[in-house]
Structures are given as structure tokens and as C-alpha cells.
Amino acid sequence: MAARKTTAGKKPVRATAATAKEPTVSAEPVVVQEATTAVQEEARLEPVALPKPEPKPPAAKSASPAVPARTSRPAPAGYPDLAALGRENLAAVARANAALVKGFEELGQEVAGYAQHNLVSAVDTARALVGVRTIADLVALNRKVAQATLEGALANSARLSEIGIRVATEALGPLNDRVAQTFGRLARPAG
Predict the structure, then answer these.
(1) Phi and psi based region of residue 55 (left: phi greater than 0; alpha: psi -120 to 50; beta: remaining)
(2) How far is it, in rounded angstroms, from Cα 42 to Cα 8?
(3) CB neighbour class for 99 (10 Å; exposed up to 12, middle 13-18, buried from 19)
(4) Distance (Å, whole) CA 11 – CA 159
(5) Following DSSP, what letter does each residue of 50-81 receive, concatenated?
(6) Residues 20, 39: Cα–Cα separation, whole Å
(7) Which tens digits make up the pLDDT trace of 118-161?
């Protein structure tokens, strides 16, 4: 679609798809420059003044307000109990989080210790391989290393399982207590 636009103090220019494209190199650089300038000028938007919105008439007041007015009535009787319950529950979550952090640190230390032990074992095995003179020595060394690696993996796995169970118990303990206390308090009739 072609549209005619004018700019203040300029001759009207007809915008077409051909003028909107990138100019091509030709023997007439002045014509290309003029076309490019015309496209750039038409691309600029002049600010348009928007009409001011009409003021809205005041709404009729209804018999019951949408937001209840504040009163000087005291909070419901059970509100302080609920607030204290929320604070205690939040403290229990913080204790559970602290237990989890401590447990994950312990698990990380245990895994790092096992990795270090395996590295030392690998270096010792490499040194022992240098001293191997016969096939029988190589088979014996291989059996010894395989047995030590399997025993170490089983022992480390058992240790990690113990830590994991202990951490889960320590972390869930405060939460279990709070759930039981919360249900006990909420189940009581208000009075």
C-alpha cells in the first residue's frame, strides 16, 4: 500500500515498497541519497496529541462499603495463639534447615575423604605396578587392589547411608513435632 505523508515545510513524497528497501549502488549517487533521506524522514513519527479523558462522574455510594472500615475492636480471641503458632512453626523450619545444612556438610566431607583415600590408593597401586616382575605378581596386585576398592566402596556406602538417615531424622524431627502440635492446637475448640 502506498501512503502519502507530508512533513512540515517539505514536498510530499510517495512512500512505496521500492523506497523502503535498501538503496542500490547506481551511477546517480545524488538520487540514491535523496531517496534515502526521504525514507528516513517519513520513518520519523511526529508526536500526536491525545485527547484528554473525560472526568468520570462520582460513583453512587452503596449501602455497604466494599472495604470494611477499621474498627477499634480487638483481634479475635484465637489470633495471638495463631500468631504464636506461626512463629513456632517458622522456628521449627529454621531448625530443620540448619540440620540439613550440617548434614550436607558432613556428607560432603565424607565423600571428599573417600575420594582422597582413592587417590592415595591409586598412587600406591601405580608405584606397586612399577615393581611388578612377573605375571603372578601382577595378578596378586590386581586381586589386592580390587578387593580393597570393593571393601572401601561398601564401607563408604554404609557410612553415607548412616549419615543420610541421621540427617533426615534430625531435619524432620522438629517438623514432625510442629505438625503434631499444630494439629493438636487447631483441633481444640476455640474458647
Answers:
(1) beta
(2) 11
(3) buried
(4) 88
(5) PPPPPPPPPPPPPSS-SSPPP--PPPPTTHHH
(6) 6
(7) 999 999 999 999 989 999 999 999 999 999 999 999 999 999 99
